[in-house]
Give the backbone structure.
Amino acid sequence: MPTCDERRWDGETDLLVIGAGAGGMTAALVGTLEGLQVVLCEKSDCVGGTTATSAGSVWIPGSRQSEAAGTPDSTGAAKNYLAGLLGDASDERLAAYLASGPVVLDYLESRSSVIFSPPPVHPDYHDLPGAAVGGRALGAVSFDGRLLGTDFARVRPPRREFMVLGGMMVGKNDIAPLVAPFRTWSNFRHVIGLIARHARDRLGFKRGTRLIMGNALVARLLHDLRRLAIDIRFHTALKELIKSGDQIVGAVLTTPTGEIALRARKGVVLATGGIGWSTELRERLLPEGTRRYSLSPDTNTGDGILAGERISGEIDRNLDSAALWMPSSVMTQPDGHLSVFPHIMLDRAKPGLLAVDASGRRFVNEANSYHDFVQGMLRSNRSPASVPSHLVCDRRFIADYGIGLVHPGTRNLRRFIEAGYLFEATSIAGLAAAIGADGDALCRTIERYNRYAEAGVDEEFGRGASALNRFNGDAQNKPNPCLRPIGPGPYYAVAVWPADLASSAGLRTDSRGRVLGSGGAPLKGLYAAGADAASLFRGTYPGPGTMIGPAMVFAWRAAMDAAGALDNYPIAMD
Ligand SMILES: Cc1cc2nc3c(=O)[nH]c(=O)nc-3n(C[C@H](O)[C@H](O)[C@H](O)COP(=O)(O)OP(=O)(O)OC[C@H]3O[C@@H](n4cnc5c(N)ncnc54)[C@H](O)[C@@H]3O)c2cc1C
């Protein structure tokens, strides 16, 4: 590696930020607001990364926004909750997170267009003391993409599977009206509004401009970055970090016109989105059976983590899980596109669905969080295999709720069956044969499931017992919103595989967001934010927003530290 003195610099800045997702865009925004000159480098031709394709929630306990919305929360309760989940919630990073979270929300709200609001109910993922049912997870407020002008094309679109009518985003609140537009007058009005707006959008844009969830967050961040005239360089990728003595002083970047060396006077922030598709890191860090699918964009290839490691940064492996998981079904579309559909909350918790392993037996509470569902899959993936597992339901379930890529109410299932995505059989034994499971075992599993459904109590896995289960179930279904007997055939199954929605194993960092070297001391001038940094929650998944929340809070802390302003926000340790 050339030393700093031998190198000819092609340019310089105060803060060099690598990667334009939630972490990198927040660091660039805050650095600029604090008076630093910032360059933001992005490998692809658009901003947003995984963040743009996400639900865009942030898990920030004790915010003023939650209080104002009538769903107050406290950092004390959150700390209690984390202590139950992690065994110990006393580390400095957690204290910094809990103290800074509400400050960051207020800072962004007063100095930028990045605003969040809490939905009334969005439960934590575990029923433990201190868990919140609402007020802790906040969502990015929707944004009108037209305000970005030509830069709208620079916002990474959502996953194709989550859009309808050629590019219209669909949020949770849109689903019921879209499925039954004529059920109520308000459903009808909602749908007419959506479609009229979308039709107008399509006259001038490639996709709908009513941006929600992660797309709204990224569009808001881009709006501010442009307003502040921040130097964003597309098609510009980190290749190597440059060290001088014990200080990181810049980076070699690959650009469309060749490599350049950029000096960073105050620091470099790594925010390249974690392990992503890096074959090397997937093989080193992820368990077998999970390496095939990732929900990261293809430009996330572990560059930040690998570059950090090469200059003596350390990957934290002491985690509950090296990644956060999503059970995902997979189908090749007629145009060759591989759809990887994340089963977040639309089907797994609804009454009348169960998941079985290769022997035809259940292995997990299917209504738990996506991460815990896959952790259950991995725990039981010995013999018999549960990778892939199959989600099983009847015809009525598909009519009411849909399954994966099959939207609710879909009448003609032929294309899904012919593509090998959906298995169909008139009998349970026939379905078992189609998915390679034992027919008798599957019949017994379904008999038991039906008994639990009649009684309203799942004696094996507690389906429908937690606030999260009930929230994602169907409140109209009694006595248990997550249990309904599997009725007469035909029967259906869809295979689900583990796919990482985020990595947890990343570079070890401290409470200022600084990357730690092998001896545990911070590497001067090097920060990591977002999925390039090791999971704050040690590879567990406490609740909705526990990736983007820390990504933004530690990006804020890193930028503040680089600007010399972090000590204006002391943390009370108790
Ligand atoms: C379907 C889905 C829903 C989710 N919902 C939520 C949610 O609601 N809340 C939550 O907290 N988490 C959620 N997550 C996880 C969350 O989206 C990610 O963990 C988070 O967005 C990662 O942010 P980031 O800034 O680290 O990386 P990213 O947003 O992935 O951004 C990384 C950027 O770096 C760029 N890049 C990569 N390599 C280089 C390089 N060498 N040089 C320059 N640029 C580079 C990439 O092109 C990319 O634009 C979800 C994930 C999925 C898949």
